[in-house]
Amino acid sequence: MFIFCSTINVNSSSWKNKTSPENKTYSVVMAAFILFQILDDGGDLTHWIYKKYPNMFKKIKGIVEESVTGVHRLYQLSKAGKLCVPAMNVNDSVTKQKFDNLYCCRESILDGLKRTTDMMFGGKQVVICGYGEVGKGCCAALKAMGSIVYVTEIDPICALQACMDGFRLVKLNEVIRQVDIVITCTGNKNVVTREHLDRMKNSCIVCNMGHSNTEIDVASLRTPELTWERVRSQVDHVIWPDGKRIVLLAEGRLLNLSCSTVPTFVLSITATTQALALIELYNAPEGRYKQDVYLLPKKMDEYVASLHLPTFDAHLTELSDEQAKYLGLNKNGPFKPNYYRYLLLCCNVK
Q: Which family does it belong to (predicted)?
């Protein structure tokens, strides 16, 4: 058995109120389960059990984590010597990175913005914070629609990729007064601060495509001098005393989960990857996985992809025995080493 978590808030009033029906129900469910594995998104459940139920945490067979933020937390525990169970980093598996993070976000960013704002993208100036897989997908989509796209980045390699893909690499302070849309894709905190929000031009749209809702400092906007006006579901106008307003989407939460739909095909790929990771950790012989964080074996990544090829009526070429021997590969894979990077010049879309 395993427990699935999709970014729960364990500090809500229902958790604090020990007499609430919600708390009682959850306690009964927890008591009835033998917790073998955790399938987490964001590390919230993992962190909660680690803090509240340390003895239960030590008995877990394994953890599977699918987000940047959650994986970062796991590596922090591992580095501190506090990770007492093996964990699988699904977020950095190829089938998660390329399909959920890149291809899905390339479509859902436009869907989310269209549903909430009814805007046109041609000629709009957009700054995208972060040029990881999510940022690459967002940049590709907006460039294809005729937007003028700027990128902010802390990683020199990702920054160089952005430059080679034709984007202007800037600091947020340099363009914050002129851009029409600000999109965060970092998984970090306080990427867009109150200072940035104060300097934005009238009607600037602000939204988040990263995992965490901490990227935009929304809490700093809840002050007496600012007026909040709900104009439609998931869309707020935050109005300054001089009449300037910004358009805040989903209160800084994840745009493509709050304001658009996630294609079932991508969900299938991600769910298959997670399921295989759970099965691998559960069935692994004693000693294969230590108390550390691991990537999904390449063979399993390839298997996930092969399961979804029939959707396109796609036919894989098979190596001959001579070709396999020449390349030093098994005919059935894995076909790439773990260090191989599946790069995609996704942004050269006309």
A: Belongs to the adenosylhomocysteinase family.
